[in-house]
Design goal:
InterPro entries: aa-tRNA-synth_I_CS, aa-tRNA-synth_Ic, Rossmann-like_a/b/a_fold, S4_RNA-bd_sf, Tyr-tRNA-ligase, Tyr-tRNA-ligase_bac-type, Tyr-tRNA-ligase_bac_2. The chain has 418 residues and is an alpha/beta fold. The protein has helices at 21-31, 40-53, 72-86, 117-131, 146-149, 153-161, 166-169, 173-180, 187-203, 215-227, 264-272, 276-286, 291-302, 307-322, 325-339, 359-365, 372-380; strands at 36-38, 58-63, 90-95, 140-144, 207-211, 234-238, 349-352, 357-358, 384-386, 389-390, 397-398, 401-407, 411-417. The longest helix has 17 residues, at 187-203.
C-alpha cells in the first residue's frame, strides 16, 4: 500500500533547537531496528520537551489477547518498549479486551471470527504476566480498553464514527483487496481502526508502537487525536520477525515460533536452528546488546570466527532472559550432548503394554510421531533410533523392556513396554 493510501502523517519542519546528547541517544534508541518513525521531527520535539520539563512521555502498545501465549515475534515491540522505559518514559501496556471482540482485520483476506468474552478473559490472564518478562512491571501502566470503549454506548460510537470517512477506511490495503475481489467485509471490522485510534485519545499517548502491519491503525490514532484537539502521537513501527523457517512471519499456526514460556532446552535448540543470515536480524530485534557490540561480533564472524559461536551467544541471552543464566548454561550443555549423540536427562517417561509392538504403532503410542504412517516414514528415512541404534526395518516388532526411543534430533522418550 502506498503512503497515499494511508492516513496523513503530517510532517513539521525540522526543529531548529540543537539536540542534547541525551536526546540524541534517545533518538538512536528509538530508531534501532525500527521500520519507520513518523514524523521523526515531531518525536525529537517531544523528547526535547520531556528533557526540559522532566515529564516522561506516554508510550503505548496495544495487544489483543487473541491467543493465550506470547512468542518471540511479539517481543520485538516489547523490547522497544523496554528500551524506551529504561530511558525514563512511561509505558502503557494496553490489553484490547474490547477490540478483541471485533477482531483485528489487519492482513486478513477474510472476516476474523470474533472471540467470546470468556476466551478473551482467559487469554488476558497470561498476557501481562508473560509481557512482564520483558517490561519492568514497576514502571508499566496496564490498562484495558473496555474502560473507555464500553461507556461510549451507541451515541458515542456514532459520534466517533463521524470523525472519519468510509473512503479513508477503504484505502486500507486489506480492505481494498477484499472490496475489489468481492470478498465480504463486515461492518464491525470497519470499526476496528477507529476503536484502536480512540485508545490513543483516551490515553493521550505521545508515541504508539506496533508492527508494520499496524501502520494504518496507528495513523488513525494520530488523526483522531487531532480531531479531539490533542497533540498528535508519533508512530513507530517495527519489522515483523520471520520465524524459524526464515520465510514466514513467526506464528503458532505456521509452527515456526519460539514461545517465551517454552522449556529452556527447547528454546535454546530452536534458536540454534535459525540460519546464519537470519541470526543478525534476530540480534538487532531481540538482543539487548548494543549495536556496537553486535557490529563487532559480526566483524569477528566475517573475519573467520564460527558463526555458531555468535548464535550460541544469542540463544543463551534469550534463554537466560526468560529463564535464568543457569538454565541457559544447562540448555547449552544439553544441546552439545545431543549433538554428540547423547541422551538428554529430562526426557519423558512412557509406560505401555502390548508387547511385542510394531515400531510404527510404538512411536505413535509414545507420542513421538502424530501417526503410525509418519512413524514408518521416519524409520524409512533413518530418523529413528532405539538405544542409539538406527532402525531401518518397517516391519520391526519391539519386545518387552525399557529403552530410549529417539525421532529426529530432538524427540526422545524412555519407554517401558510390557
Amino acid at each position: 500500500m502506498s503512503d497515499a493510501a494511508l492516513p496523513t502523517a503530517s510532517t513539521s519542519p525540522e526543529t531548529a533547537a540543537p539536540m542534547s546528547d541525551a536526546v540524541r541517544e534517545a533518538l538512536a534508541v528509538s530508531l534501532r531496528g525500527c521500520a519507520e518513525l513518523l514524523p521523526q521531527s515531531d518525536w525529537v520535539k517531544k523528547l526535547q520537551r520531556s528533557e526540559a520539563t522532566g515529564q516522561p512521555l506516554r508510550i503505548k502498545l496495544g495487544l489483543d489477547p487473541t491467543a493465550p501465549d506470547i512468542h518471540l515475534g511479539h517481543t520485538v515491540v516489547l523490547n522497544k518498549m523496554r528500551q524506551l522505559q529504561d530511558l525514563g518514559h512511561r509505558v502503557i501496556f494496553l490489553i484490547g479486551d474490547f477490540t478483541s471482540l471485533i477482531g483485528d482485520p489487519s492482513g486478513r483476506n477474510s472476516t476474523r471470527p470474533p472471540l467470546t468474552k470468556e476466551q478473551i478473559e482467559a487469554n488476558a490472564q497470561t498476557y501481562y504476566k508473560q509481557a512482564s518478562l520483558v517490561l519492568d512491571p514497576e514502571k508499566t501502566e496496564i490498562r484495558y480498553n473496555s474502560e473507555w470503549c464500553d461507556p461510549l454506548g451507541a451515541r458515542g460510537m456514532i459520534q466517533l464514527a463521524a470523525k472519519y470517512t468510509l473512503a479513508r477506511l477503504l484505502e486500507r490495503d486489506d480492505f481494498t483487496k477484499r472490496f475489489q475481489s468481492n470478498a465480504p467485509i463486515s461492518m464491525h471490522e470497519l470499526l476496528y481502526p477507529l476503536m484502536q485510534g480512540y485508545d490513543s485519545v483516551a490515553l493521550k499517548s505521545d508515541l504508539e508502537l506496533g508492527g508494520t502491519d499496524q501502520k494504518f491503525n496507528l495513523l488513525v490514532g494520530r488523526a483522531l487525536q487531532a480531531e479531539y484537539g490533542q497533540e498528535a502521537q508519533c508512530v513507530l513501527t517495527m519489522p515483523l520477525l520471520e520465524g524459524l523457517d526464515g520465510i514466514e512471519k513467526m506464528s503458532k499456526s505456521k509452527n515456526n515460533y519460539v514461545g517465551i514460556t517454552e522449556a529452556p532446552n527447547s528454546m535454546f535448540a530452536k534458536i540454534l536452528s535459525i540460519s546464519d543470515e537470519q541470526m543478525w536480524k534476530w540480534f538487532t530485534l531481540l538482543s539487548f546488546r548494543s549495536e556496537r557490540e553486535i557490529e563487532a561480533l559480526k566483524a569477528e564472524v566475517t573475519g573467520g570466527r564460527n558463526p555458531k559461536d555468535a548464535k550460541v551467544l544469542l540463544a543463551k541471552e534469550i534463554t537466560a532472559r526468560f529463564h535464568n543464566a543457569a538454565a541457559a548454561d544447562a540448555a547449552e550443555a544439553d544441546f552439545n550432548n545431543r549433538a554428540k549423540g547423547g541422551i538428554p536427562d529430562d526426557i519423558p517417561e512412557v509406560s505401555l503394554s502390548g508387547a511385542p509392538m510394531a515400531i510404527g504403532a510404538l512411536l505413535k503410542a509414545a507420542n513421538l510421531v502424530p501417526s503410525t504412517s509418519e512413524g514408518l516414514r521416519m524409520v524409512e528415512q533413518g530418523g529413528v533410533r532405539l538405544d542409539g541404534t538406527v532402525l531401518s526395518d518397517r516391519g520391526l516388532k519391539i519386545n518387552a523392556g525399557t529403552f530410549v526411543l529417539q525421532v529426529g534430533k530432538r524427540k526422545f522418550a524412555r519407554v517401558t513396554l510390557a
